[in-house]
Amino acid sequence: MKDEYAIVLDFLPKGYGYGKPEPIAQVLGTSFFTLLEVVPREGFVLKAGDKVYIGSGKREEIDHIKRRINYQKLTAFAKSELEQAVKRIVEENEQRFVDFFNKAQPVTVRLHQLELLPGIGKKHMWEILEERKKEPFKSFEDIKNRLKLLPNPKELIIKRILMEIKGEDDKYRVFVRR
Questions:
Q1: Contacts of residue 3, Cβ cutoff 8 Å, sequence gap at least 6
Q2: Is residue 175 within 8 Å of 161, Cβ to Cβ?
Q3: What is the phi/psi pair of residue 96, to 5°?
Q4: 3-class secondary structure, 8
Q5: CA geometry: angle at 152 spanning 48 and 9, to 5°?
Q6: DSSP alpha helices (H): ranges in the chain?
Q7: Other CB atoms closer than 10 Å to residue 139's CB: what's the count?
Q8: Which of 33, 124, 129, 158 yields a CA-CA distance of 20 to 30 A from 19?
């Protein structure tokens, strides 16, 4: 399973300024949040925020995927675009992340997946579990309305994804593939 689409974080038309000067784009996969360097097809100019196809079918804008990279390898500009790209992916796939609240399971006897979200402790976790028994959550808005004291659920998801991309919690991964 690989990312089919990615969002461009930065485009360097002349590459990094060393080695062979080839255009490079740093992108974020939309399904597994994989950070990649891709080489666009001849004549294509990409800009931050563009959504490009990187799957195994016929690619229009992308010639090939050069390599997988980690957060530390991102340019300063790509780092500045990262949160906006993650936010866009979460908003465009809201049901996928709402389903996380509906289906999250224990990781160990003492730790639940919900507790991996920043700002969720045992008290919030139990509230979510009780509320989802009554009826599955339908949207972020539904979660907010039914759990009054819970921090913004969309923001919690975005923060967790950013933590995982940056490698701030390498023990447990919920959204980002290793």
A1: 29, 30, 31, 32, 34, 36, 54, 55
A2: yes
A3: -60, -40
A4: strand
A5: 10
A6: 76-92, 94-103, 122-134, 140-146, 153-166
A7: 14
A8: 33
CB of 107 within 8 A of CB of 113? Answer: yes
What's the farthest any 2 CA atoms get from each other in the chain?
59
**How is residue 41 annotated by DSSP?**
P
Taking the model in full, what pTM does it have? 0.95
Contact yes or no for 3/38 (Cβ under 8 A): no
The strands making up 35-40's β-sheet, listed across from edge to edge, are 51-53, 5-12, 24-29, 35-40, 62-68
pLDDT in tens, the chain (178 residues): 799 999 999 999 999 887 778 999 999 999 999 999 999 999 999 999 999 999 999 999 999 999 999 999 999 999 999 999 999 999 999 999 999 999 999 999 999 999 999 999 999 999 999 999 999 999 999 999 999 899 999 999 999 999 999 999 879 999 998 8
